[in-house]
Amino acid sequence: MRQPVLPLSRRWSRYGIALAAPLLLVAAACAPQEDTTASDTSSDTASESPSEAADPCATDTLPVLTPGTLTVGTDSPAYDPWFRKNDPTNGQGYESAVAYAVADRLGFSADQVTWVTVPFNSSYKPGAKSFDFDINQISITPQRAKVVDFSDGYYQASQAVIALKGSPAADAASLEDLAGLKLGAQTGTTSLTAIRDGIQPDEDPAVFPNTNAAKQALLNGQVDAILADLPTAFYIVAVEIPKGTIVGQFQPTVGEQEEFGMLFEKGNPLVSCVNQALQSLKDDGTLAQIEQEWLSDTVDVPVLQ
Fold first, then answer.
1. Which of 65, 77, 99, 128 is the most exposed place for a label (fewest CB within 10 A)?
2. Do 225 and 178 contact (CB within 8 A), yes or no?
3. What's the pTM value of the predicted model, to 2 decimals?
């Protein structure tokens, strides 16, 4: 817009040699004695099965903040289409549904999931976290990954430009066409980075504390266009600003696909188990079904170059 005997074999050689009685006594005294303790140990070790080893991702051994509970963070307000009705606990909206699906694969029921409010900008700051993972349209970036860990990506994002219908910005057909306009985006997001690094406007972009403030600035004529991820842009123009339009979309980082990832405290061993759960959702088609339900795009948005 926070990354798990060979059994001992012995060969005993015995030789029958006719010796005098004294020599036989010496030989008997010096004969090697069978080490039954070592033999028993080897036998026990060899009988152990790898399948009996503890599962590092077993629910009751997961390194969660609160035993028996998965604590998930997100911002408030939580926007559509990622969360419905500003209520992450209802399982509705793409990210809410993904969080509960991951929880299920980890062995947590819906009533074992607890949500905490985490402001977007503080989620990827270094230090201890109040959540097991945060899910809030947080793009995986090298800079953020220096101080927090991310899961594998769960959504591939592109940036969208939103303007009012009939405005000069609505007619933009390229990134160059946007450079002379007043643009804005939420602070700390990749949308803001996309303006600065991708569009490189003549005028510094307007920076807003959240998407609501950015939308209001667009309606007030304080900016010509605002940027948001594409699914959010669809919701904005369909529900919140009907007189708005999506001018186009683009990838802010050339050669790299922007992805959202679940964010963790740096060094959290839970990352590998969440990745395992996420991969299973991808493999059986569940993640694609969730995306189709909540993020299906009904408009062919042009790509701005």
1. 128
2. yes
3. 0.75
